[in-house]
Design goal:
InterPro entries: HlyB_4HB_MCP
Distance between the termini: 19 Å
Low-confidence stretches: none
Number of helices: 4
Radius of gyration: 33 Å
Pfam families: 4HB_MCP_1 (PF12729)
Strand content: under 5%
CATH topology: f41 fragment of flagellin, N-terminal domain
Organism: Algoriphagus pacificus
Largest sheet: 2 strands, antiparallel
Protein name: MCP four helix bundle domain-containing protein
Order of helices and strands: HHHEEH
Number of domains: 1
Keywords: Membrane, Transmembrane, Transmembrane helix
Amino acid sequence: MKKKKLQAIAVISVLLLLIYGKNLTERQAFKSISKTFTDVYNDRLVVEGYIFQISDRLFSIQKLIDHCNMDYDYSRVINEIDGHEKGIMDLIVDFEKTNLTIEESDYLTDFKKIIENDLSIKNYDLLYSDSSGVNTQQVKLYDQKIALAKKDLENLSKIQMDEGQKLISKAKVQINRSQIWAQFEVALLIILIIVIYIFLFKSSGKKQDVFS
């Protein structure tokens, strides 16, 4: 009788330890899932917002360089281009603080070089002069550099989609694993209830036999 009682206690203890271990695993999985969705937001969705803002500023620079609006007062054009470029560089600083892949880092470095070295216009005469009007050759050169910068942004945007899908797929795997563990816990609880029931039922049955 004593031996069976010890065996039942041992089985119950093992089941309780398994349930406790499962809860620890579940807690870790929840933290991992939470981190994954945080990464999707901070490193992908927020970054996509940076890319959109950078693209908008780059488009504004191109409009100013190409003299798209002939009614516009271009006397402040260099300052405005410079302001947009500084705004882009500020966004890049925030971009660089996120969790970059090697590919992202390469595209972002190339993009920075174009903004800093190729699109930095110090003199309006490079774009326009009263005698010859718009410097078409120079404007075309700037447009080519802007096209390269846009290509970098397109590649960066594609990376956000790809990496975001990877993170979401990872989260789905973790969620499915958690569901399996949840089913495992239910099975353990059922076994635990059966063991306790059998132990109590047999014990009470034997006591009744003794007193009858």
